[in-house]
């Protein structure tokens, strides 16, 4: 059986994601689609809108055949490490290809860009270092260095676009892994990554959907932008927790943690650097909402996303020492499967290069224990009374 892999968050699963999954299957000629999905905390440093089981159900309802979890250490990482974790898992489970959505819409510009940077790697790193020294953010430094090498010539990927950036890192990760998977991309359609909902457009961004909900729209009012399965899962989430995940909801617990730890201990947590722990602490002392809190911290050097990742690690207690101890994914955590997905696993499970895990009780290494802990902290933030849900929820079987 031939599988195509995709790396996703589904926060929540919407019509654009459905298009991506269908096109990935079609373009690859695959028999099934395997999704590596972030768990309870996401790459932009946020708690998930709905828990990983609800988002797994959304994916299965929409035709995804296998959903496996991207471990916390990669799900909450900068783009290059996020890609490293996702690509490693797709390779380990035996995918023939991987497919990502991009603003570019064609794979050759990505291949050209990757070849260029490989050929001029030392110069590229030097340009990045020089740019960072001027005080600009790291993402801006990367882009400036890249533009210096390409000279805005045609034929290269536009790495100012968020999905293009991720796509480039997927190719980079696959190359570093010496993976035999074929890279594919499809044109991203509809709303851009951060766009608000626009009336009359059937495809909205996940950011726009969440924004509309928190501004007062009901789940039913957002049904035009999501498949029926997503609507049903969100209604179930609302009934179970009485709310959806956001930093505003988690802020009282985050604020307590920051104030309890103090600046000296805050700097031990992953990505907290350059003395920003002092500003985080002082801002928590004065601000009673998350938006006012983060507005005092973000700057040209420290973007909102970078700060949110720091805050995620402070909230979960994830340290620099832990971050530096991991070299790659250590298992394949199964969250859900269709009948086709189960047949694939029966055929492939003896040939996967990482152990397949279906029960939380079997996550007995440090990476697995971190995932379990992250789930407990997420459930606490959601006000759940069932903090053992990780152990009592089996993989979801669809069909």
TrEMBL record:
The keyword Transmembrane helix does not apply. Its EC number is 6.3.4.-. Pfam families: HIGH_NTase1. SUPFAM superfamilies: Nucleotidylyl transferase (SSF52374). ATP binds at residues 7-20, 101, 163, 188-189. Keywords: ATP-binding, Cytoplasm, Ligase, Nucleotide-binding, RNA-binding, tRNA processing, tRNA-binding. GO terms for molecular function: ATP binding; ligase activity, forming carbon-nitrogen bonds; tRNA binding. Its main location: cytoplasm. It catalyses: cytidine(34) in elongator tRNA(Met) + acetate + ATP = N(4)-acetylcytidine(34) in elongator tRNA(Met) + AMP + diphosphate. Coiled coil: none annotated. One of its GO terms (biological process) is tRNA modification. InterPro entries: Rossmann-like_a/b/a_fold (IPR014729), tRNA(Met)_cyd_acetate_ligase (IPR008513). It is found in: Cytoplasm. GO terms for cellular component: cytoplasm. Belongs to the TmcAL family. HAMAP family: TmcAL. Catalyzes the formation of N(4)-acetylcytidine (ac(4)C) at the wobble position of elongator tRNA(Met), using acetate and ATP as substrates. First activates an acetate ion to form acetyladenylate (Ac-AMP) and then transfers the acetyl group to tRNA to form ac(4)C34. This is tRNA(Met) cytidine acetate ligase. It comes from Planococcus antarcticus DSM 14505.
